[in-house]
Amino acid sequence: MPPQHQDPTEQASRRFKKTVEDFVCYNCGTKVSGNGYTDHCPVCLWGKHVDIMPGDRSAGCHGHMRPIGAAYKSGTYTIYYECEGCGRRSGFKAAGADGADVLASLVSAQHRRKI
Ligand SMILES: [Zn+2]
Ligand SMILES: [Zn+2]
User: Strands 64-73 and 76-83: what pairing?
Assistant: First the structure.
């Protein structure tokens, strides 16, 4: 077998791993299966500071993103985060798998802060 031979199946699975990130949640320990888009835990909603623009993965910080509030508008939740690493605040759209209870409590936390 020549050394440059590569099994096409193996190649495909390597590419797949590049875009999909599985991670263990820093806050609650849930094992999260990434789908290439997921960057936060669906149980407690903690995330990781990896994006400057959503999905670009170009932030060098990699600090833990604490959910500090949420807003509900036209059928979608936006979760507001504060990064424990650099203090940067940002908002990201919630994913379909995210816990509705946690989202609802974040919305009321957001309201309390405004008052
Ligand atoms: Zn979690
Ligand atoms: Zn950060």
Answer: antiparallel
